[in-house]
Amino acid sequence: MKTFLIVMITTISVISFAQTKPANPFGLVYGDAITENVSGKVNIHPITYKLNGLEISANVYTPANYDPAKKYPTVVVAHPNGGVKEQVAGLYAQRLAESGYIAIAADAAYQGASGGQPRNVDKPANRIEDIRGMADFITQYKGVDASRLGVLGICGGGGYTLKAAQTDKRFKVVATLSMFNSGLVRRNGFMDSGLATVQQRLKEASEARALEAAGGEVRYAADTKTTDEQADKMPFDLYREGHYYYNRTHAHPNSTFRYTMSSLLDLMEFDAATNMDLINQPLLMMAGSKADSFYMTESAFNLATDTKDKELFLIPGATHIQTYYVPIYVAQAMNKLNEFFGKYL
């Protein structure tokens, strides 16, 4: 009970802080975010670029005393499902820049501040292409050493990072944090909780696509507002804590859980853990030791049989969402990333 009360008090305090703090000029909602570009320090550069005809919105982070005439190791950072570059992806990109890397975090196509209609399409092929598109752009950026390019994927971005790195060998080292296998969960439900409704959901997705093709409305999944009371009754830490992270403490207007119902036609046939033997780059997969999503990291990691250097790193005491923002857990993840990336980049 004492621990519960401490957690609740901490949560309430964080929520209060999040609601009263001044708006960040770059829209960043994570702790210790950059508020201005100061000479000699880590800087943030909001940019846009074209990917398959769509305008992608991204932030590039450059290290302290950045000199475009020099060459820096660089990391592409892929955000979670429903997340945006201003949240956890931006936090880790900034931390990487503090460690001497150039880093890029971009909003997925059809999501966040990036272009694409209808909004919130969430197809695996698009998300994988987003990661490759970040590599396309950042390897042309001044100061980037394209021969020292790494990738970090967080949550759903972690699953898509695994797929991108299976075939895209521009990525010399691959890392994931709290990896979420989007296709597996959209198909079977979290911890196989949705097996009984697979065919019904496929039917709904098929009907949604037919309606779109006929010029009708765009239907969405997960398009309801959850109250704190409803979240508190959720059986999984990931979703319960995710509600507070995305809707309270680290809310951003471009972030949403919803996605087009028709996306399920692609999502439900997707599995991030297939063809893991194609990854021959050094692989680091990190997860909280208390994360109820760990089974997805463990499964994919065990299937990575063709890399000569892979490591599974558990962050003691952390749940899935806590790796996004709790300082002690972020520090442990960054220490491991610096060690792993430093060895190969």
Average of the residue pLDDT scores: 94
Percent strand equals 15-25%
CATH H-level homologous superfamily name:
Alpha/Beta hydrolase fold, catalytic domain
Query: Any idea what the CATH architecture is?
Result: 3-Layer(aba) Sandwich
Low-confidence stretches: 1-20
| Tally of helical segments | 11
Determine and state the CATH class: Alpha Beta
What would the CATH topology be? Rossmann fold
Description:
The chain has 11 helices and 10 strands. With 345 residues, the chain is an alpha/beta fold. It has one domain (2-181, 224-257, 271-344): Rossmann fold (3-Layer(aba) Sandwich), CATH 3.40.50. The strands form 2 sheets. The chain has an 8-stranded mixed β-sheet, sandwiched between helices. Strand 3 (72-78), helix 2 and strand 4 form a beta-alpha-beta unit. The longest helix is centred in the N-terminal third of the chain and has 19 residues, at 2-20. The radius of gyration is 19 Å and the shape is globular.
Task: Give structural attributes.
345 residues; alpha/beta; Rossmann fold; 8-stranded mixed β-sheet; two-stranded antiparallel sheet; 38% helix; globular
Topology:
Elements: H1 2-20, E1 43-51, E2 54-62, E3 72-78, H2 88-98, E4 102-106, H3 124-138, E5 144-154, H4 156-167, E6 173-177, H5 182-188, H6 198-213, E7 220-221, H7 228-232, H8 237-249, E8 259-260, H9 264-267, E9 283-288, H10 294-303, E10 310-315, H11 327-344
Parallel strand pairs: 3-4, 3-5, 5-6, 6-9, 9-10
Antiparallel strand pairs: 1-2, 2-4, 7-8
Helix pairs in contact: 3-4
